[in-house]
Amino acid sequence: MTTGPASVATLPEAVQRVAAALAALGHPGSPLMLDAAARTAQQAADALGVRLGQIAKSIVFRHVASARAVLVVCAGDRRVDEARVAQHVGALARADAAFVRARTGFAIGGVSPLGHAESPIALIDDSLWRFDRIWAAAGHPHAVFALAPDDLQRWLGVAASAVSAPPMQG
After folding, report:
1. Virtual torsion, Cα 139, 23, 52, 4, nearest 10 deg
2. Fewer beta carbons under 10 A from the terminal one: N or C of the chain?
Protein backbone atom coordinates (compact mmCIF):
# COMPACT_ATOMS: atom_id res chain seq x y z
CA MET A 1 0.00 0.00 0.00
CA THR A 2 1.27 3.48 -0.78
CA THR A 3 0.59 6.81 0.75
CA GLY A 4 0.89 8.47 -2.65
CA PRO A 5 2.95 11.41 -3.77
CA ALA A 6 3.93 13.71 -0.95
CA SER A 7 4.87 17.34 -1.03
CA VAL A 8 8.51 17.40 -2.10
CA ALA A 9 9.40 19.64 0.84
CA THR A 10 8.22 16.98 3.30
CA LEU A 11 10.23 14.16 1.75
CA PRO A 12 13.56 12.96 3.18
CA GLU A 13 16.56 14.79 1.64
CA ALA A 14 17.67 11.83 -0.51
CA VAL A 15 14.14 11.43 -1.90
CA GLN A 16 14.05 15.17 -2.66
CA ARG A 17 17.28 14.67 -4.65
CA VAL A 18 15.67 11.88 -6.67
CA ALA A 19 12.51 13.97 -7.19
CA ALA A 20 14.67 16.84 -8.48
CA ALA A 21 16.55 14.49 -10.82
CA LEU A 22 13.26 13.10 -12.17
CA ALA A 23 11.94 16.63 -12.74
CA ALA A 24 15.17 17.69 -14.49
CA LEU A 25 14.85 14.67 -16.78
CA GLY A 26 11.26 15.61 -17.64
CA HIS A 27 9.79 12.52 -15.98
CA PRO A 28 6.10 13.17 -15.23
CA GLY A 29 6.01 11.04 -12.08
CA SER A 30 7.33 11.70 -8.62
CA PRO A 31 8.40 9.39 -5.81
CA LEU A 32 5.73 7.56 -3.83
CA MET A 33 6.18 6.90 -0.15
CA LEU A 34 5.20 3.36 0.84
CA ASP A 35 3.55 2.60 4.16
CA ALA A 36 6.03 -0.24 4.77
CA ALA A 37 9.75 -0.42 4.13
CA ALA A 38 10.79 -1.94 0.82
CA ARG A 39 14.45 -2.72 1.51
CA THR A 40 14.20 -5.82 -0.70
CA ALA A 41 12.74 -6.32 -4.14
CA GLN A 42 10.19 -8.75 -2.70
CA GLN A 43 9.02 -6.22 -0.09
CA ALA A 44 8.65 -3.57 -2.80
CA ALA A 45 6.73 -5.92 -5.11
CA ASP A 46 4.42 -6.93 -2.27
CA ALA A 47 3.78 -3.30 -1.26
CA LEU A 48 3.04 -2.25 -4.85
CA GLY A 49 1.10 -5.36 -5.87
CA VAL A 50 3.35 -5.99 -8.87
CA ARG A 51 5.46 -8.90 -10.10
CA LEU A 52 8.89 -9.30 -8.51
CA GLY A 53 10.58 -8.81 -11.89
CA GLN A 54 9.03 -5.33 -12.17
CA ILE A 55 11.23 -4.09 -9.34
CA ALA A 56 14.40 -2.54 -10.74
CA LYS A 57 16.87 -3.23 -7.96
CA SER A 58 20.06 -1.20 -7.79
CA ILE A 59 23.10 -3.26 -6.79
CA VAL A 60 26.36 -1.43 -6.08
CA PHE A 61 29.88 -2.84 -6.36
CA ARG A 62 33.28 -1.19 -5.95
CA HIS A 63 35.34 -0.92 -9.13
CA VAL A 64 38.80 -2.15 -8.12
CA ALA A 65 40.83 -0.05 -10.57
CA SER A 66 39.13 3.29 -9.91
CA ALA A 67 37.29 2.84 -6.58
CA ARG A 68 34.17 4.20 -8.32
CA ALA A 69 30.75 2.77 -7.65
CA VAL A 70 29.48 0.29 -10.22
CA LEU A 71 25.68 0.49 -10.35
CA VAL A 72 23.91 -2.54 -11.78
CA VAL A 73 20.15 -2.17 -12.28
CA CYS A 74 18.54 -5.58 -12.51
CA ALA A 75 15.05 -7.10 -12.35
CA GLY A 76 14.04 -8.13 -8.85
CA ASP A 77 13.55 -11.76 -9.84
CA ARG A 78 17.08 -12.11 -11.16
CA ARG A 79 20.47 -12.35 -9.49
CA VAL A 80 23.34 -10.18 -10.70
CA ASP A 81 26.15 -12.32 -12.12
CA GLU A 82 29.34 -10.66 -10.85
CA ALA A 83 31.48 -12.42 -13.49
CA ARG A 84 29.31 -10.97 -16.28
CA VAL A 85 29.51 -7.51 -14.73
CA ALA A 86 33.30 -7.80 -14.45
CA GLN A 87 33.50 -8.73 -18.16
CA HIS A 88 32.00 -5.31 -18.91
CA VAL A 89 33.82 -3.10 -16.40
CA GLY A 90 36.81 -4.98 -14.96
CA ALA A 91 37.55 -6.34 -11.51
CA LEU A 92 34.94 -5.78 -8.80
CA ALA A 93 34.89 -5.85 -5.03
CA ARG A 94 32.01 -5.87 -2.58
CA ALA A 95 30.72 -2.47 -1.55
CA ASP A 96 30.03 -2.07 2.15
CA ALA A 97 27.34 0.24 3.53
CA ALA A 98 29.78 3.12 4.11
CA PHE A 99 31.09 2.92 0.52
CA VAL A 100 27.55 2.81 -0.91
CA ARG A 101 26.45 5.85 1.11
CA ALA A 102 29.63 7.83 0.31
CA ARG A 103 29.53 7.18 -3.45
CA THR A 104 25.78 7.21 -4.08
CA GLY A 105 24.40 9.38 -1.28
CA PHE A 106 21.90 6.62 -0.48
CA ALA A 107 21.66 3.94 2.19
CA ILE A 108 21.49 0.30 1.12
CA GLY A 109 17.83 -0.58 0.63
CA GLY A 110 17.02 2.78 -0.94
CA VAL A 111 19.63 3.18 -3.70
CA SER A 112 18.03 4.94 -6.65
CA PRO A 113 19.33 4.47 -10.19
CA LEU A 114 19.65 8.27 -10.46
CA GLY A 115 20.52 11.26 -8.29
CA HIS A 116 23.84 9.83 -7.12
CA ALA A 117 26.39 11.87 -5.17
CA GLU A 118 29.08 10.74 -7.66
CA SER A 119 28.44 9.50 -11.18
CA PRO A 120 28.67 5.68 -11.15
CA ILE A 121 29.77 3.25 -13.81
CA ALA A 122 26.33 1.96 -14.81
CA LEU A 123 24.98 -1.24 -16.31
CA ILE A 124 21.35 -2.22 -16.95
CA ASP A 125 20.31 -5.84 -17.21
CA ASP A 126 18.30 -6.66 -20.31
CA SER A 127 15.81 -8.72 -18.26
CA LEU A 128 13.96 -5.50 -17.35
CA TRP A 129 12.58 -5.21 -20.89
CA ARG A 130 10.09 -8.00 -20.18
CA PHE A 131 7.93 -5.26 -18.63
CA ASP A 132 6.48 -1.98 -19.90
CA ARG A 133 6.44 -0.47 -16.40
CA ILE A 134 8.98 -1.03 -13.66
CA TRP A 135 9.59 0.46 -10.21
CA ALA A 136 12.85 1.67 -8.70
CA ALA A 137 13.94 2.86 -5.27
CA ALA A 138 13.79 6.62 -4.83
CA GLY A 139 16.49 7.25 -2.24
CA HIS A 140 14.84 5.79 0.86
CA PRO A 141 13.59 2.31 1.90
CA HIS A 142 9.99 3.63 1.81
CA ALA A 143 10.27 5.53 -1.51
CA VAL A 144 9.80 4.27 -5.08
CA PHE A 145 9.00 5.66 -8.52
CA ALA A 146 7.57 4.19 -11.70
CA LEU A 147 9.38 4.28 -15.02
CA ALA A 148 9.89 2.38 -18.26
CA PRO A 149 13.06 0.39 -18.99
CA ASP A 150 13.80 2.74 -21.90
CA ASP A 151 13.87 5.62 -19.39
CA LEU A 152 16.78 3.97 -17.56
CA GLN A 153 18.70 3.44 -20.76
CA ARG A 154 18.23 7.07 -21.78
CA TRP A 155 18.99 8.52 -18.33
CA LEU A 156 22.05 6.40 -17.60
CA GLY A 157 23.37 6.58 -21.16
CA VAL A 158 24.15 2.87 -21.41
CA ALA A 159 22.84 0.02 -23.51
CA ALA A 160 21.19 -2.94 -21.84
CA SER A 161 23.33 -6.02 -21.43
CA ALA A 162 23.01 -9.52 -20.02
CA VAL A 163 24.47 -9.14 -16.53
CA SER A 164 22.11 -11.37 -14.56
CA ALA A 165 22.37 -15.07 -14.00
CA PRO A 166 19.99 -17.14 -16.13
CA PRO A 167 16.72 -17.77 -14.28
CA MET A 168 16.40 -20.99 -12.32
CA GLN A 169 14.50 -23.71 -14.15
CA GLY A 170 12.07 -25.52 -11.98
Report:
1. 80
2. C
- Report the Cα 162 to chain-centroid distance in Å: 16
Quote the CA–CA distance of 117 and 85 in Å, as a whole number: 22
Cα gap 32→5, rounded to integer Å = 5
| Torsion of the alpha carbons at 40, 57, 134 and 87, rounded to the nearest 10 | -150
